[in-house]
Amino acid sequence: MAQPRHIAIVMDGNGRWAKRRFLPRVAGHKQGVDSLRRCVKACAARGIQVLTVFAFSSENWNRPADEVSGLMDLLALALGREVPQLLADGVRLHFVGERKGLSDKVAAGLAQAEATTAHNTRMVLNVCFNYGGRWDIAQAAAALAACGEAITEQSLDRAMALAHVPDPDLLIRTGGEQRISNFLLWQCAYSELYFSDHLWPDFDEAALDEAIAAFAGRERRFGQTSEQLTPAVTQPVGQTAG
Ligand code: IPE
Ligand code: IPE
Ligand code: MG
């Protein structure tokens, strides 16, 4: 059974999870951190090599100020709490996104967490925070232009924020919406898309296994035909069946 090497997830639905319980939206985000912890463990246990999650988009700054500050506080809190377990589980943490715009405290926390887990080799966890797919393409092009390098698919690939991992095989979005919302625009060119109606706090191991099973049933053609991928077994000339 084909297993994805790299799973990317748009963790959507925290706000609705909270609203259904008459709780503030930030309570949904807190529950979302618990769900992420469970998902990281489950992916590591299943031998997934890379997990990339969308935690805060370039556009999420447009949310109400109390929600934005609640998310920043939650990130700082989670960094302190979760890093020891990631370390114990062999997970290497990367933060992907624009650091400018984050407070000095948050930025220092991210750098510290990355340094602490840098020698881990079991699984890579990319947390996309203050990330946008358009930002990523633009920053990669700007970096190449600044050093006078030609812009090609290969050079852009190397300058992109996820250059340290292969492209996602499977892109999951929870919460029922079927859109990309400026996530990995460049890298998901050939990712298999999977949309789950579970709100992110409810996305458990069984839901993850359903997504992985759906992936296993897909035929990835990368522009080729089905026949090219599985050439028919042709019968040698002169032989009859039976
Ligand atoms: C995703 O959950 C988390 C972030 C965008 C930070 P939402 O907060 O978007 O949840 P819904 O979509 O409003 O339910
Ligand atoms: C995408 O979810 C961003 C994250 C999950 C971090 P949104 O909730 O921001 O997406 P839209 O606004 O519904 O497209
Ligand atoms: Mg949402």
What's the structural blueprint in terms of helices and strands?
Blueprint: E1 6-10, H1 14-20, H2 25-45, E2 50-57, H3 65-88, E3 91-96, H4 104-117, E4 123-131, H5 133-146, H6 153-159, E5 170-173, E6 192-195, H7 205-216, H8 226-229
Helix pairs in contact: 1-2, 2-3, 3-4, 5-6
One 3-methylbut-3-enyl trihydrogen diphosphate binds at residues 10-12, 54-57, 60, 177, 179, 181.
Task: Describe what you observe in this structure.
It is a single chain. With 242 residues, the protein is α/β, with parallel strands linked by helices. It has a single domain, classed as 3-Layer(aba) Sandwich (Undecaprenyl pyrophosphate synthetase). Helices cover 43% and strands 15% of the residues. It is built from eight helices and six strands. Strands 3-4-2-1-5-6 form a six-stranded parallel β-sheet, with helices on both faces. α4 (104-117) links the parallel β3 (91-96) and β4. α1 (14-20) crosses α2, α2 runs parallel beside α3 (65-88) and α3 runs parallel beside α4 (104-117). The structure holds 3-methylbut-3-enyl trihydrogen diphosphate (2 copies) and magnesium ion. Magnesium ion binds at residues 12, 175.
In short:
This protein has helices spanning 14-20, 25-45, 65-88, 104-117, 133-146, 153-159, 205-216, 226-229; strands at residues 6-10, 50-57, 91-96, 123-131, 170-173, 192-195.
Cα end-to-end separation: 31 Å
Which series of helices and strands comes N to C?
Answer: EHHEHEHEHHEEHH
How much is the average pLDDT? 95
What is the CATH H-level superfamily? Decaprenyl diphosphate synthase-like
Strand arrangement in the largest pleated sheet:
3-4-2-1-5-6
Supply the CATH architecture: 3-Layer(aba) Sandwich
| Ligands bound, unique | 3-methylbut-3-enyl trihydrogen diphosphate, magnesium ion
Query: pLDDT below 50 for ≥5 consecutive residues: which ranges?
Result: none
* Total count of strands: 6
Enter the CATH topology name: Undecaprenyl pyrophosphate synthetase
SS content category: alpha/beta
**Computed Rg:** 20 Å
Task: Report the principal-axis shape.
Answer: globular
How many distinct domains? 1
Number of helices: 8
Under the CATH scheme, which class?
Alpha Beta
Strand-residue fraction?
5-15%
Largest sheet data? 6 strands, parallel
Helix content: 40-55%
